[in-house]
Amino acid sequence: MRMRPTLSWTPAEDLPPGTTDLEPVVEALRAGGVLVLSGAGISTESGIPDYRGEGGSLTRHTPMTYQDFVADAGARRRYWARSHLGWRVFGRARPNAGHRAVAAFGRHGLLAGVITQNVDGLHQAAGSGDVVELHGSLDRVVCLSCGAFVPRRELARRLEEANPGFAPVAAGINPDGDADLTDDQVGDFRVVPCEVCGGVLKPDVVFFGENVPPERVERCRALVREAASLLVLGSSLTVMSGLRFVRQAAGEGKPVLIVNRDPTRGDRHARARVALPLGSALGSVAHRLGVPLDGGPATG
After folding, report:
1. CA 25 from centroid of its chain's CA atoms
2. Which of 99, 135, 269, 287 is catalytic?
3. Beta bridge partners of 203
4. pLDDT at position 249
5. Is the pTM of this model over 0.85?
6. Rounded to an integer, what distance in angstroms lies between the CA atom of residue 41 and that of residue 300?
7. Highest mean pLDDT (candidates 76-85, 173-182, 259-268)
8. In what order do the strands lie in the sheet with 256-259?
């Protein structure tokens, strides 16, 4: 089954409306045992765009599919040229108030865990521990032949050496770290092979059209079973890889709360969707709970 299909979704007219009332989120966190499921929307305030929100990059960008990457050397060259440029932007991104709030909730024992659909590592950079990266991480690279893993920074160094002076200006950067470049800008960009076996290197992320590893899915399902409630942050839930956990939680009778400015595919399963910007919304929740975002002691 294709876990990350490239698809569009149009909100149904009968979806429940959004609210600006944060009290359901405050009460869920106060009770504890909240499982967070985050999407690209939590990272937009760090300068990483969303796919489907306002100005989302799916309006101008089709993500690389696993099938194209594996089958076509030209597609791999285009991907690595664009990703090499995008990695420089990702490397400069820093956690925002939303990431810091999630980390603070975890420090104060309010969370059952964090699942993220993002590949940017910003939850961990903010201090969240034991984050399940549903779609992997751009910080790692894997060889498709021998399975060897290498840090992305090491591959970046090798690509810099193989492509001196490569510095085109991208039209935009996408949530998967893929920059928008024309074929002329890609030019004759040189891709480097695995240093262990000479095989094809791929970022350790789940491409569209690729399966999420089943053991990772089961780990997430177990977290849902153990949680008291599910809090979705900044995800349109358009693809099944995240939506299935919303459906699972709702099917188990657990409250589902969503903070996302736009309607989502999971709204009909949620007790409420809070239509507010994530950083300010979660900062307000933290204040009302007496949870500081700087790592200090709780005040309430």
Report:
1. 21
2. 135
3. 141
4. 98
5. yes
6. 29
7. 259-268
8. 131-133, 111-116, 34-38, 229-233, 256-259, 272-274
What are the structure tokens assigned to 9, written together? 């979704």
Q: Strand pairing partners for 231?
A: 36, 257
Residue 12 contacts residue 275 (beta carbons within 8 Å): no
Q: How far apart are CA 61 and CA 48, in angstroms?
A: 14
Rounded to whole angstroms, the Cα distance separating 125 from 129 reads 9
Count of C-beta atoms within a 10 Å radius of residue 192: 13
Q: Is the pLDDT of residue 298 over 60?
A: no
Q: Indicate if 135 belongs to the active site.
A: yes
Cα 120–Cα 202–Cα 149 angle in degrees, nearest 5: 85
pLDDT over threshold 50, residue 54: no
Q: How many residues does the chain have?
A: 300
Task: Identify whether the C-beta of residue 265 lies closer than 8 Å to the C-beta of residue 236.
Answer: yes
pLDDT tens-place string over residues 200-258: 999 999 998 899 999 999 999 999 999 999 999 999 999 888 999 999 999 999 999 99
